[in-house]
Amino acid sequence: MSQTRPDGAPANAAKGKPAKASIIAYKAELRKAIRRNAIEPEINFLNITAMLDIMTIILVFLLKSLGESSAAIPQSDDLRLPTSIVRTEPHDEGVVVTISKSQILVGENKILSLPSRESMAQTGVGAQHKRGGPNDPYIVPLGNALQAARKTDIAVRRAKGQDTRSSTAIIVADHTTPYRLLVEVLYTLGQSEFGEYHLMVMQSKK
């Protein structure tokens, strides 16, 4: 005897099963989920603006350092400038080379100590600082410092639109500097591509 359900369908009718999602639909949903959860890779870009700001500050500092007036030279027992009746304005741009009684400096950097005045009158700074012996006028430590200063001066001149073929030196020498030592300094400057020299003096009242 067969039984019927209240809706009239046979009681032993097969119960309906939930339809399975197709493989294509499943893969599509999976791809969407992956895209939603994906993390964008972090890209670090080089900040050119900050680097340009730093380079500008450095350039302004160099221009200011090389452009400062060299007329205000402090006088001391170790350094007294010679006097002159020349009334021309002092040159205020260039690499400052100072020759005192006891040392040679480029800018504010000490390059080497000097022997006695009597010794320098005969052999200059001494054979240990020369390139080819006591009679060679090239001073090696001074030349090395001038070459570094020359590279900086080229960059400054290029930024100003000036001629870069040679540099200018401002020589601040004590009035008792031996002639031999002065010649050696000038020769080393010439070998380091410094083609213009200015000797700092004190203006005489007469």
Task: Kindly describe this structure.
- With 206 residues, the protein is of the alpha/beta class.
- The protein has one domain (54-203).
- It is built from five helices and seven strands; from the N terminus they run H-H-E-E-E-E-H-H-E-H-E-E.
- The chain has a five-stranded mixed sheet, covered by helices on one side.
- A hairpin with a 2-residue loop joins strand 3 and strand 4 (109-113).
- The longest helix has 21 residues, at 140-160.
- The protein is elongated.
- The model is unreliable at 13-19 (pLDDT under 50).
Query: What kind of sheet is the major sheet?
Result: 5 strands, mixed
Query: In what range is the share of β-strand residues?
Result: 15-25%
Count of individual beta strands: 7
| Total DSSP helices | 5
Q: Give the overall shape, derived from the CA principal axes.
A: elongated
Q: What strand line-up does the widest sheet have?
A: 4-3-2-5-6
H and E string = HHEEEEHHEHEE
Find the structural class using helix and strand composition.
alpha/beta
